[in-house]
Design goal:
- By secondary structure, the protein is α+β, with helices and mostly antiparallel strands.
- The chain has a domain of 133 residues.
- The chain is 44% helix and 17% strand.
- The protein is built from four helices and six strands.
- Helix 3 packs antiparallel against helix 4.
Length: 221
């Protein structure tokens, strides 16, 4: 083998694969491996304070995720409460419209319908079912109030959609008929004003008063 510095082709090949130092021949591959091992060792011996950086990120991610889940749960509770409030108001509106329809069907005897605090007091005495038999105007008025009171108090026989905790008033002034309903809301909110000085009975509690009033002009005298 030629000495270092020779220009023979064989030495040129050796230069590409080996390096010469005084007293030692070694492969560049071993040098590369030593450099990689030194790099791994340096990474392992890095500052211990940097090891917790990943854990801190995980903790922050968990905290943000937990806050997001709490916000989602709160929004679900609020949506459920608003849905219940809307359902209660819809039921009260349907009941008010139903009473107006009953009054129009018995328009000549509107004076038999005024009532205050219906739902907080016992319902009228049961009368014959005027849907099956012919009734006098007075019996029809009592039947209408009895059926309406059953819906207000949610007693059996009126279906699962009966709106409970309702109080109702019917006021007749000439041809003007006013039906007012009040009930206890599910959550605390800005209270509705008492509708037409109604209802009588138990207090719904602070911030839970809900009310509705519907007026119409009847036919006839």
């Amino acid at each position: 083998m030629a000495r270092p510095g020779a220009t023979s082709p064989l030495w040129s090949v050796h230069v590409k694969s080996r390096r010469w130092r005084p007293g030692a021949w070694y492969s560049t591959a071993w040098e590369d491996r030593g450099w990689l091992a030194a790099g791994v060792t340096a990474m392992r011996q890095s500052d211990p304070g940097q090891r917790g950086f990943g854990l801190l990120e995980v903790m922050l991610a968990v905290l943000v995720g937990s806050l997001g889940m709490l916000g989602l749960a709160a929004s679900q509770v609020l949506a459920s409460r608003m849905l219940d409030e809307a359902r209660q108001r819809s039921q009260a509106t349907l009941l008010a419209v139903d009473m107006h329809a009953r009054l129009r069907a018995n328009a000549g005897h509107r004076g038999l319908y005024p009532v205050h605090g219906l739902g907080a007091e016992p319902a009228p005495v049961q009368t014959p079912d005027c849907r099956q038999v012919s009734c006098s105007p007075a019996d029809l008025a009592r039947f209408d109030l009895d059926q309406w009171a059953r819906q207000l108090t949610g007693r059996p026989g009126q279906g699962p959609d009966a709106a409970g905790t309702l109080r109702a008033c019917v006021d007749v002034s000439g041809r003007l008929v006013t039906v007012a309903l009040a009930w206890r809301g599910r959550g605390v909110a800005l209270p509705d004003p008492p509708p037409h000085d109604c209802p009588a009975g138990e207090s719904p509690g602070p911030g839970r008063q809900r009310g509705l009033r519907l007026s119409s002009w009847g036919r006839g005298s």
